[in-house]
Design a protein that fits this description.
Helices cover 54% and strands 7% of the residues. It has 340 residues and is mainly alpha-helical. Helix 1 links the parallel strand 1 (2-7) and strand 2. It is elongated and about 75 Å long. Bound molecules: adenosine-5'-triphosphate and magnesium ion. Residues 8, 16-17, 19-21, 145, 186-188, 197-202 line the site of adenosine-5'-triphosphate (ATP). Adenosine-5'-triphosphate binds at residues 8, 16-17, 19-21, 145, 186-188, 197-202.
Length: 340
């Protein structure tokens, strides 16, 4: 089975990104052959500062490696290193896609809200680039959160429509991917407002734990986590969102069951419980943070890893592109003529 995931190289990553996404990059390596990419072409839709984009791309790659993505098992590459294949496939799929279906994408509606005709075309066609990202690698399975389900449905529709137009009866020129729905739970809430998810753009600074926070900062943020006026450590997300968020986090980083953790902390005070969670999270994140800094201090090694992965990615994507070129009736490009 082949799995594909992309991650945007924008900004610093928080504990929610780690628990909800990055952690699964690591465990999904066991499910099959993984292709993971840093989606710098997607990030361009927001016209980020060029130096920031370059830096964030390397940082995001280092973060995935530090978290446990193993370049011997997974192909971890930068999307723009395979830009030629991704963008050519995007063009073909844009010819298959319909304005009506792109108009219906709720993320486009959200992002273009109030912008009228001045919204970027890149934001509009972004889901088609996503479709190209997926079909380029013949991915069987794409892990998606709730916010990406609609886009994966579009990928499936475009691949099927392409196959119907250009393939023989039942022929799958482009692989039609299945969504891999993430397990329920694992949604990390803001420590200061446990009714809202921890978030990059809408979070509170004190309530957001960054993956690169030092241990004492992490413990401090947990110490001031908002809970409730009872004094009972009990899992009840509706009535006790703060305590439940802490229990879930402790469960994930310690591997111990919620029931066991409830029993252990039942007699303590919230203060002790919050410190215990903070220390467990800090202990879990410390080796990741240390490995991250090592990688960022050795750019040559980081670039070597990304370089050999890019070769592997290009090999697969260019085979898909060659198949598509032949099927749609484009002439194979002639070899470049020798200049001397
Ligand atoms: P923004 O607030 O700007 O939307 P974000 O913090 O939600 O940013 P994204 O880049 O939108 O970050 O999401 C990256 C990945 O992290 C996605 O897979 C998303 O589902 C996951 N994720 C984001 N926030 C959380 C959270 N609080 N708990 C669990 N998973 C999360
Ligand atoms: Mg988000």
């Amino acid at each position: 089975m082949r799995i594909l995931s992309g991650i945007q190289p924008t900004g610093d990553k928080h504990l929610g990104n780690y628990i909800g996404a990055i952690r699964h990059y690591v465990s999904n390596q066991d499910l099959g052959e993984a292709f993971y990419f840093i989606a710098d072409l997607h990030a361009l839709t927001l016209l980020p500062d060029p130096a920031d984009l370059r830096e964030s791309t390397l940082k995001t790659a280092a973060m995935l490696l530090a978290a446990g993505v193993d370049p011997e098992r997974a192909t971890l590459f930068v999307q723009s290193h395979v830009a030629s294949e991704h963008t050519q496939l995007t063009w073909v799929l844009q010819c298959v896609a319909r304005m009506g279906e792109l108009n219906r994408m709720t993320q486009f509606k959200d992002k273009s809200d109030g912008k009228g005709d001045s919204v970027s075309v890149g934001i509009y066609t972004y889901p088609v680039l996503q479709a190209a990202d997926v079909v380029a690698y013949d991915a069987d399975s794409v892990p998606v959160g709730a916010d990406q389900k609609q886009h994966l449905e579009l990928v499936r529709n475009l691949a099927q429509r392409f196959n119907n137009r250009y393939g023989a009866e039942g022929e799958e020129i482009l692989k039609v991917p299945e969504p891999l729905i993430a397990e329920v739970g694992g949604r990390v809430m803001d420590l200061q407002d446990p009714t809202r998810k921890m978030s990059t753009s809408n979070g509170s600074e004190k309530g957001t734990v960054w993956m690169l926070d030092e241990s004492d900062t992490i413990v401090k943020k947990f110490k001031s986590a908002v809970t409730d006026s009872e004094a009972e450590v009990r899992y009840d997300p509706a009535q006790k969102p703060g305590v439940s968020n802490l229990l879930e986090l402790l469960h994930i980083v310690s591997g111990r069951s919620i029931a066991e953790l409830e029993a252990e902390h039942d007699h303590g005070r919230y203060g002790d419980f919050k410190v215990a969670v903070g220390e467990a999270v800090a202990a879990h994140m410390t080796p990741i943070r240390e490995r991250y800094h090592e990688l960022m201090d050795d750019r040559a090694e980081l670039e070597r890893i990304l370089g050999s992965s890019a070769d592997r990615a290009r090999e697969v994507a260019s085979a898909t592109l060659a198949r598509v070129v032949a099927k749609v009736g484009l002439l194979e490009a002639p070899e470049r003529a020798a200049t001397n």
